[in-house]
Amino acid sequence: MRVLVADDERLLADTVAEGLRRFSMAVDVCYDGGGALERIGVNRYDVAVLDRDMPGHTGDEVCRCLADSGSGTRVLLLTAAAGIRDRVEGLGLGADDYLTKPFAFAELVARVQALGRRSAPALPPVLAQHGVTLDVARHRVTRDGRPVNLSPKEFAVLHVLMRADGRVVSAEELLEQAWDEFADPFTNAVRVTVMTLRKKLGEPQVIHTVPRAGYRIGGPA
Questions:
Q1: Model's pTM, two decimal places?
Q2: Could you tell me if 7 and 30 are in contact, meaning their C-beta atoms sit under 8 angstroms apart?
Q3: What is the DSSP string of 107-176?
Q4: For residue range 75-118, what is the model confidence (pLDDT) as tens digits?
Q5: Domains of the chain by range and CATH?
């Protein structure tokens, strides 16, 4: 899942981003509305976490732009204003959810994960294919009942492949969905991550390379 975090409170924005990355999300960060507008013009996000009260272009403006674009990006608005009128107004702009500051980080994660599931075709909270089970909410993976300890990036790559449900996923698509904006498109990070993921999942192999196309979950192409 790829997430944009935009908040002029730099420490808060960086802390939220780092926390979401621990849950295998690819997170881009900016500290004003102008930066958020630039990024949504270039990248496709599953979820945008926006502070309503940023200077210059506000979170409201960014939210409205996303709603008008039809991009499918889900929006979680953050604000210190806790009144019902404020929540209603934010949701009326096209936001999908609303969270007041200060908030519990566990609640933020749960809300972002829920919005991420809504940004794509409906999928069950637990994905199971070819003996591999992936539980997004609990951040757990098993292979034939055996726990598999994955790094955040390995978990993210496996999630993208399992969401594809047998469709071939290109290396470029994996970079876009599992890495942030600083990923080098010429890096071998995807190949190395898939290689270590295969080793951890064990035999028989469930991730197969499709020459000149990408990777898929399932039997050999």
A1: 0.70
A2: no
A3: HHHHHHHHHHHHTSS---SEEEETTEEEETTTTEEEETTEE----HHHHHHHHHHHHHTT--B-HHHHHH
A4: 999 987 666 666 666 567 778 898 988 899 999 999 998 898 77
A5: 2-118 (3.40.50.2300), 126-217 (1.10.10.10)
